[in-house]
Specification:
Length: about 280
């Protein structure tokens, strides 16, 4: 592969290879790289903020940052599409760790948004930022950053999570300046740090265990490896996962999609949806 063209910019093979090299490093080496990036970012910042979702990656990003800046602002963007255990866990942790904690909510809830704009495609960034991500996540966060004059945002993005995040890491690296988040423009450039962008899930779990950090109970309770929006249709396998952990939400989604027949194939345990009148693509915004 010579290069990959993304948004008019050609990414070289070397940019992906350097991510692979970072990913092959030991946990201690990764911690050092992460700490150096956070140090560099916060030394240039007056008002840094950690975006904490309650997930394991942003938990590690938060834990690393607190060592260097215990009074860092912490934003929990409550999408209203969270596991109730996540909301409780985040609020409890904020109290326990005495965080400088803020919680924001969107103007519309998920169901209103998908009714108007459709459900997110299972490859959710294939057509740009889904409308629900913009309204539930980006807009409230950007409004908060504006109001609080945030000049540095630390997030738990990992290159290994998705193609979009791999590309972002290849393009920008672990620390960069940006005038936008998602589709939203910011009033001025801010520093963005993704301290765990080179970490794999196993590194996160090892770090969490090493420092005995309290982790969101949803991972164990539901046997899942992501803890974001509950009713998300924006990833492969969402139907099967919802059938297992929240069948009533799956039913509600199918009802809204106009899908009336929902059968679980007892032999394969696969869900057979479909009266084939409607497919997910009909709901792309
Ligand atoms: S994670 Fe899924 S449900 Fe949540 S805002 Fe993004 S696309 Fe929508």
């Amino acid at each position: 592969m010579d290069g990959y063209i993304k948004g008019g910019e050609t990414l070289e093979y070397e940019q992906f290879e350097s991510i692979r090299r970072e990913q092959r490093k030991t946990l201690d080496e990764k911690i050092e790289t992460s700490i150096n990036a956070i140090k560099e970012g916060i030394s240039k910042s007056k008002r840094p903020c950690v975006a904490f979702s309650g997930g394991k990656a942003s938990l590690v990003a938060l834990h690393l940052t607190l060592h260097l800046k215990p009074d860092v602002m912490v934003l929990f963007n409550n999408t209203t599409n969270e596991f109730h255990e996540t909301v409780k866990y985040v609020r409890d942790l904020a109290r326990k760790w005495k965080l400088r904690f803020y919680e924001v909510k969107p103007k519309l809830n998920y169901w209103h948004i998908v009714k108007k704009h459709g459900f997110p495609h299972q490859q959710r960034y294939k057509f740009g930022e889904p409308k629900c991500c913009q309204i539930l996540k980006t807009d409230p966060a950007v409004e908060f950053y504006r109001k609080k004059h945030i000049d540095c945002v630390i997030t738990g993005i990992q290159a290994s999570e998705s193609g979009a995040r791999l590309l972002l890491t290849a393009q920008k690296g672990i620390i960069f300046e940006s005038e936008s988040i998602g589709n939203a423009r910011l009033p001025r450039k801010i520093i963005r740090i993704n301290p765990v962008c080179y970490w794999l899930d196993k590194d996160l779990w090892e770090y969490i265990e090493r420092y005995n950090i309290p982790v969101n109970p949803v991972y164990e309770k539901y046997g899942i490896d992501r803890c974001g929006c509950v009713a998300c249709t924006g990833y492969f396998g969402w139907e099967k996962e919802l059938a297992r952990i929240r069948p009533r939400i799956l039913e509600r989604i199918y009802n809204m999609m106009g899908i009336t027949q929902l059968k679980l194939d007892e032999e394969t345990e696969e869900i057979r949806v479909r009266d084939n009148k409607v497919t997910l693509d009909d709901f792309d915004s």
